[in-house]
Structure formats: C-alpha cells, structure tokens
Amino acid sequence: MDRLQDTLSEDSDRLQRERARRHALEANAVIPEHRECHECGESIPGARLRARPLATLCIDCQQDAERHHS
C-alpha cells in the first residue's frame, strides 16, 4: 500500500510540475495572431490563442480529442 501511495504522490507531483511549466510557458509566450490546427488545418481563432497561447488544436478538434480521452 505504501508503494501505491508513493506512486500516486509521484504522479501528482509530476502533474503539478507539468502544469506549472505550461503556465510559465503560456505567461511568457508570444501570442500569434493565428495558427493552423494540427488536426484539421483550419485557422485557430485569435481569441483562443490569447486564452491558450500554446493551443495546437481548434476548439472543435480539442473537444473531439477530449471526448475520445474521457
């Protein structure tokens, strides 16, 4: 049981570090005016890029990806 708790704690720590890293990248990112979606090739709207500067998917493709992973 202790090993399981250690593993869960390590996973949680890793996720926290990844979130902090992404937050720092987003805070310092140069926000482009537009970017193409990696999935469908459509333009990602500027409003989405201002909210999520590291976004690589348009809203529709992101929602599809989230549905498939949940």
UniProtKB/TrEMBL annotation:
**Which Gene3D superfamilies does the record cross-reference, listed alphabetically?**
DksA, coiled-coil domain
Q: Please name the GO terms of the biological process aspect recorded for this protein, alphabetically.
A: positive regulation of secondary metabolite biosynthetic process
Entries under Pfam families matching the protein: zf-dskA_traR
Coiled-coil parts of chain: 1-28
Q: Where are the zinc fingers (dksA C4-type)?
A: 37-61
Q: Which PROSITE patterns match?
A: ZF_DKSA_2
Q: Where is the signal peptide?
A: none
- What name is this protein filed under? Zinc finger DksA/TraR C4-type domain-containing protein
Species this chain originates from: Gluconobacter potus
